[in-house]
Write a structure and sequence with these properties.
about 375 residues; alpha/beta; FAD/NAD(P)-binding domain
């Protein structure tokens, strides 16, 4: 006898799915079985990552216990990294070779992104990417011990908010003799933020002795050095890769409609373009009529419209468009109890900004401490 219960499958334990599950604790989906497939049991919260590296937060404080969230929401947790899917048969395959045949009525993808290391020779072999976060933290733990024992040079590639904040956080945890070099392809740091934000953080980096190589590009990573665009080399005992995000490679053969950069094209309803029963949210998704920056802020804010449209789709009701906020607040910590706030053309740098950031991040994580 065929079950009348519907199947909702969530691929990836990103911010959007964690929040969606949390919302379903209070208002469950009647007659729906929910399954979360994730390659991590503890999902890192990106807002607290630099603070964790800088020693402000413990591992537990910055991670969401996904099996616990699933249990509270009445969902099933399946450990596995999805590396393939077939929209026709509605089958998923994991990196262990397991075939997951849930026959979902609705499938949502929230698997995030990672820095693109494959385009630069040697980067995949020698650089430590900023994502996946478990890989970053494992690499950082190893490098931190090396810095305490030896004179060490760390090269960070990428001068956006993530690269700048990670550099500052790492530098706060190692001996002063450790050399830091930040390489960025643009003529100024944080080009997506206003000039005052860039000036504040450039000043912080220079005051703390970080060498800046702006308007330059790493063309090759070697075992103990990086090669720059002009052919020059920099000594590099460790390289951290914090460049523009790229989607998971398996999407290229998923049968989904993708952008030129390989991200999943979705409508304003967060439905994929060719398969209305497949949704996508967070970094992995690009709204075709309104592309957004790849940011945890938008991943968090997609949770409400995703929940609304999941309910509507499963009940046969009309879906509504996600209308993203035009301006977002960014709070960038400087590992000394201060933070730089960035909002449109405005910027502030003070201890009060760090206290604000700390309250926001702790309040976010408190949602999952039931």
């Amino acid at each position: 006898m065929t079950s009348s219960r519907k199947q909702l499958v969530l691929v990836g334990g990103g911010h959007t799915h964690a929040l969606l599950l949390n919302r379903l604790v209070e208002e469950p989906l009647e007659g729906v079985d929910i399954t979360l497939v994730s390659d991590v049991r503890d999902a890192p919260y990106s807002g607290m990552l630099p603070g964790h590296v800088a020693g402000f937060y413990s591992h537990r404080e910055m991670h969401i216990d996904l099996p616990l969230v699933c249990e509270a929401a009445g969902a099933k947790f399946v450990a596995g990294k999805v590396i393939a899917m077939d929209p026709q048969s509605r089958v998923l395959r994991t990196d262990s070779g397991e075939v997951l045949d849930f026959s979902p009525d609705l499938l949502s993808i929230n698997v995030g992104s990672h820095p693109k290391v494959s385009s630069v020779p040697g980067a995949s072999e020698y650089a430590i990417p900023s994502k996946p976060v478990p890989e970053l933290l494992e690499g950082w733990s190893r490098v931190k011990e090396e810095c305490r024992e030896f004179e060490w040079t760390i090269v960070v590639v990428g001068g956006g908010a993530g690269g700048v904040e990670l550099t500052i956080a790492m530098q706060s945890q190692v001996p002063e003799r450790t050399r830091f070099v930040l390489v960025h392809s643009h003529e100024r740091l944080l080009e997506w933020h206003n000039d005052r934000v860039a000036r504040h953080l450039t000043g912080v980096l220079r005051k703390r002795g970080v060498e800046l190589r702006l308007g330059d590009r790493v063309t090759e990573v070697q075992e103990k050095s990086v090669v720059l665009r002009d052919g020059g080399e920099l000594n590099a005992d460790s390289v951290f890769w914090v460049t523009q995000p790229a989607p998971p490679e398996w999407l290229s053969e998923s049968g989904l409609d993708l952008t030129e950069k390989g991200f999943i094209r979705v409508k304003p309803t967060l439905q994929t373009v060719k398969h209305p029963w497949i949704f996508a949210a967070g970094d992995v998704a690009t709204i075709e009529s309104d592309p957004l920056p790849k940011s945890g802020v938008y991943a968090v804010r997609m949770a409400v419209p995703l929940e609304r449209n999941v309910r509507a789709f499963l009940s046969g009701e009309e879906l509504s468009d996600y209308d993203p906020q035009r301006k977002t607040l960014a709070l960038i910590g400087t590992a000394d109890g201060k933070a730089v706030a960035s909002y449109g053309p405005f910027s502030w740098y003070s201890r009060g900004m760090w206290r604000w950031k700390d309250r926001i991040d702790k309040k976010f994580m408190e949602q999952f401490c039931r």
